[in-house]
Amino acid sequence: MIGWPGGLQVWLAAGATDMRRGFDGLAALVQERLGADPFSGQVFVFRGRKGDRIKLLWWDGDGLCLLAKRLESGHFVWPQASDGAVHLTAAQLSMLLEGIDWRRPRHTARPRHSA
What we know:
Layout: E1 10-16, H1 23-32, E2 43-47, E3 53-59, E4 64-70, E5 85-88, H2 90-97
Parallel strand pairs: 1-2
Antiparallel strand pairs: 1-5, 2-3, 3-4
C-alpha cells in the first residue's frame, strides 16, 4: 500500500463518475465539479455507477498518480449527495479502500478503565 503523507486531504466526489476517464478527464472533473486544484497534493476519489470500482487521483509532487480498485464482491460506501465532495481522513480512506463502512467504524472491544 502507498504511504500517504501526513496531513493528507482526501475528497470523495459525490455521485457517479464515468470510469473510462483517465488522468486528464478526472483532473478536469476536479477543477469543474469540485472547484479544486488537482495538482494541490490532495487525493480525489471517484466511484463508478455500479459502486464496485473507484479511482484515486493524486499529485505526489513529481506527477499525477491514478490508482484504481475493483471489489470482487460488495460495493464502496458512498455519500448520498449527487454533487459536491465529502472530506475524509487518511484513516477513513484506508477503511474505504478495504470495503469497510467508513461512516460508522466500530471498535472490536471497548476500552477498559483501570482502577
